[in-house]
Amino acid sequence: MISSSDNSHSRDAHTHNSDSCCSSTPRIPKREILTKSDLERFQTSETYEKYMGFITKLNEAVVDKPLDYSADKSDNITFLMELLDKLKAWVDEIPPADVGLSRFGNPSFRKWHDKLSEKHLELLTIVPEDYKTEVGTYLLASFGDYKRIDYGTGHEASFMCFLLCLQHLGLIKEEDYPALVLSVFWQYIMVMRKLTHAYWLEPAGSHGVWGLDDYHFLPFLFGSGQLSTHKYLRPKSIHDPEILEEFGEKYMYLSSIKHINSIKSATLRWHSPMLDDISGVKKWEKVNSGMFKMYKAEVLNKLPIMQHFLFGSIIQFKGSADGTEVEMEHVHAFGQEHPLCCSIRIPSSIAAVQGELRKPIPFD
CB under 8 Å, gap of 24 or more: what pairs does 41-46 form? Predict the structure, then answer.
C-alpha cells in the first residue's frame, strides 16, 4: 500500500537535494511551443539534449536485458510500481459505460481521469511538497486526454518527463535505470493497455502519419535496445508466430508486435507498414539507432505533438509567448486545415474486438 507515512523518510531525505538541484522556483508546467519557430529553437536547447540524453541512457541500461531481468529495485522504484498498480486497479473499479456498438472512446474514461486528477498529488508522497504540483502535472498528462478520450506519443512523452523530473530531484539514480525501464516503464505500458482496452481510447492522430502503431513509440525504441546484441533473434522474427509466443513476454518489441496482431486484422504489411519495413533490417542494433532518428523526426519534430509539451522549472524552455497563457488553435496532423484525421474522430481498433458483436475491420 502507498501511504504518506510509509514514504516520509524518502521525502525528507531528498528535500535538501531537490532544493540544490533546481535553478528556479517550482511552477506549474505550461505550453511554450506554440509556433514552428518555437519548435526549431527547442530542438537546439539544453532541455532537448537533456530529454534525449535521458532516453539514451535508459536505452543503454537495458541492452541485452529481457523483461524478466532481475534488476535491483530501490524503494522509490518499488513506490512507482505500487503507484501504477493502484492506477491499474481503478479501471476495475470504474467499468466502461454501456454505449452499444460504438467504437469511439468510452465516457467512463473521464470518471477514471477525474479520480486521477483528484488523487494524483496525494499519491506522490516521495516528491518534496514544493514540487508536487509541478511533477504531478506531468503524471496527470501521461494517461490520455480527458476531453477527446484519446492517447498518443505526446502522452507517452509526458510520462518520460515525469520520470525525468524524479531523476532531476534525486529520487531516481542511474543505477535505477534498468528497473526504471524494465519494471516501471513497462508497467506504465500495461496500465495503458488496460485503459485502451477498457475505455477504447482513440489514437491521438492518424496512425501512419508519424507513428509505429496507434498509440506508442518508446516500447519499440527500448525494445530494439534490449535486442540489439541478441545472438539469435533477428528483426524478421516478428513475422514468426512461434517466436512471438515464446519471447513475447521477454522483449518489449516482440510483445508490442504480438499485441498489435491481437487487435488488428490482415497483416503487418497492411496495417503497420512501417513496422513491416523495419523487419527487413538485418541487425537490431541498426533498428535501434534508426528508432532514435525516427523519434526525433517523427515525434519531437512534429508541432501537433510538441504544441502540448509542458515546461516548468525542471524541464525548462521559453517560447514566443509573453508569459501569459495563450489560447492557440490546435495544429492538425496535416497542417492548419481540418483533414479527415481531425474533423472525423478516429475510432479505436480495440473497441472493434470487444464483445461478440464487434469484429476486426480490415486495414484498421
Answer: 41/319, 42/306, 42/317, 42/319, 43/300, 43/301, 45/317
